[in-house]
Amino acid sequence: MTGKDVVGLANTGTGKTASFLLPLIQKVSQDRSQKVLIMAPTRELATQIEEELRLFSREMRIYSALCIGGVGINGQIHRLRFNPNFVIGTPGRLKDLQQQGKISFTEFNNVVLDEVDRMLDMGFIHDMTQILSALPVRRQSAFFSATASPEVLRIMNRFLTQPTTISIKTNTVLTNITQEVVKTNGQDKVNVLHDLLVQQGFDKVLVFGRTKWGLEKLANDLSRRGFAVASIHGNKSQGQRKRSLEEFKSNRVKVLLATDVASRGLDIDNITHVINFDLPESYDDYIHRIGRTGRANKKGKAVTLIP
């Protein structure tokens, strides 16, 4: 992740859980000293977030503790002793654990607050602010809320530093997009991508990669395997980019490879699939990438490859 604070104005059901978990999983997998605290207003939402985390990070040796009320605290204390990279919980139980000396918030250099407006409505303001005040000054924070009420804005202004704001205010943005995660399980990622591209329905596919060099290598690999492919990235001239886009738009090539920067502002009809060959760096990049499909009331699919 880029390290910037994020405000996400997003309704429930807009795919935001995957979009903050995937970059954080990537961050932790690259630096095991990273610790992530995720706060949610209800036990149900916290449980759902932990279930998605387990699904996305299976076999990556990334561990979590779920800290919620309504169930015994001893099992949670036991999990915390293993120093998990992710702690997911409700403010009340997290505060209880801190008061018992079982968790220290000074250790967390990443924090996510999901459904901030709902937490305020449920009376968690004091627990939230006490927990946030105990976190290190140097941290990355992401706050998500369906509304931007004065109370929500006050919390954000107090605890965020020059945040990037992303607004996904209607469910229509992502309801037409099915989001999937494909684990490579040690296989060559190009082979996994190949197996996806030959499936029925992968008719017009936009593939995102992180580096210009990596994308060019991938383009050569796919071409050798017989795929009609084009690419756009920073090492291409404007003329080359334009030609690649025209080939993709007119269906002369089935697969377009792109970096995040080169793809800004792209408007291409009828993209059936977006594939995250490399994980996005941020929530903003993830939403921007997958929003290339599922447009104009058509259905689309977003597939993210993870180790």
UniProtKB/TrEMBL annotation:
GO terms for molecular function: ATP binding; hydrolase activity; nucleic acid binding; RNA helicase activity. SMART domains: DEXDc (SM00487), HELICc (SM00490). Residues 1-166 form the Helicase ATP-binding domain. SUPFAM superfamilies: P-loop containing nucleoside triphosphate hydrolases (SSF52540). InterPro entries: DEAD/DEAH_box_helicase_dom (IPR011545), DEAD/DEAH_RhlB (IPR044742), DEAD_box_RNA_helicase (IPR050079), Helicase_ATP-bd (IPR014001), Helicase_C-like (IPR001650), P-loop_NTPase (IPR027417). It comes from the Bacteria. Keywords: ATP-binding, Helicase, Hydrolase, Nucleotide-binding. Residues 176-307 form the Helicase C-terminal domain. GO terms for cellular component: cytosol. Belongs to the DEAD box helicase family. This is RNA helicase. It comes from Candidatus Amesbacteria bacterium RIFOXYB1_FULL_47_9.
